[in-house]
Design brief:
By secondary structure, the protein is mainly beta. It contains 4 helices and 21 strands. It has a domain at 67-206 and 237-288: Acid Proteases (Cathepsin D, subunit A, domain 1). Pfam families: Asp (PF00026).
Length: 299
């Protein structure tokens, strides 16, 4: 019987990417070798329905996202755990809301540490937060997954606040499968701690730049205009078009509610314009097979 083998590519914070402290990870080696100027890499999904992604070391492709890159600090609030990747990249999610462009419903009003993890498929949230999300989305989770009526309104988004700015991810991009007008969301509860894991379900809707030298992450909404020509720029020092989030300098973890209460007066089904009737089976389940694209800086 054939077996599949997956390698582990060390691209996290150097001090945390290995328990053999004398070893440097790949971004550090590339910088030491003069191949890249700065320990920076960007990651994005290859196309909207692709199962592959791209990593650019030392560079950014400006054709792959829309709007500004929102920059937030990397935090180190979480203790090591068997449930967390050792080379994790942590940020703070300060707020979470459901929006259709006109009306908004609060899902989360407290701050949570969040791990950006491309090795995890789904978004994992504390069970108390999951229960709040279930109530607002009017979701059924009898099979452990969260199932909702498929929204026909493509403007429906789940908005993540990072240090004062929002990154809006279309709810349809969080869907892992459809059947008979019902959509399964790539969000599951976890009972290991008060933190969020933003896995590939989240990352496929974002363009993410990891700056290991300055301990920062920059995020933007992924632009899936496949006809756009690549616009790859080598990063020497500052990242062009990246702006600090409004609360960058005061990014603190607020109080965490063990049992957040759903206070929304507007339910999810009232945000929907209609329920999809097509019954088309669609799978946008993503297993990120990283395609490495190393940009060589020729001096």
């Amino acid at each position: 019987m054939p077996h599949s083998f997956y390698g582990v590519l060390g691209i996290g914070i150097p001090n945390n990417s290995s328990n053999i402290t004398s070893l440097s990870n790949l971004p550090a080696r590339l910088k030491m070798g003069g191949i890249i100027e700065k320990m920076v890499y960007s990651m994005y999904q290859l196309s909207q329905n692709s199962t592959r992604g791209v990593v650019l070391f030392g560079a950014i492709d400006y054709s792959k996202f829309t709007g500004e890159l929102l920059t937030v600090p990397i935090t180190t609030l979480l203790e090591d755990s068997m449930y967390l990747p050792r080379s994790r990249i942590e940020v703070i999610v300060n707020h979470l809301q459901l929006s259709n462009g006109e009306k908004k419903v609060n899902v989360l009003t407290n701050s949570y540490p969040a791990v950006l993890d491309s090795s995890t498929e789904l978004i994992q949230v504390p069970r108390a937060l999951a229960n709040n999300l279930k109530y607002i989305l009017n979701a059924d989770n009898s099979s452990s997954a969260y199932v909702i009526k498929c929204p026909s309104d493509s403007s429906l988004t789940l908005d993540f606040e990072f240090s004062g700015s929002f990154l809006s991810i279309p709810v349809l991009s969080l869907v892992t499968s459809r059947y008979a007008g019902n959509c399964t969301l790539g969000i599951i509860p976890q009972d290991q701690g008060n933190y969020i894991i933003l896995g590939r379900t989240f990352l496929k809707g974002a363009y993410v730049v990891y700056d290991l030298d300055d301990r920062e992450v920059s995020l933007a909404v992924r632009d899936f205009n496949e006809g756009a020509l690549s616009s790859i720029v080598v990063i020497n020092s500052l990242i062009a078009s990246a702006v600090d989030a409004p609360n960058y300098s005061s990014t603190l973890l607020g109080s965490i509610s063990r049992e957040p209460k759903a206070t929304a007066t507007l339910k999810y089904n009232k945000l929907l314009m209609a329920v999809s009737k097509d019954g088309l089976a669609l799978s946008i389940k993503m297993t990120l097979a990283i395609v490495l694209a190393v940009v060589l800086l020729v001096v």
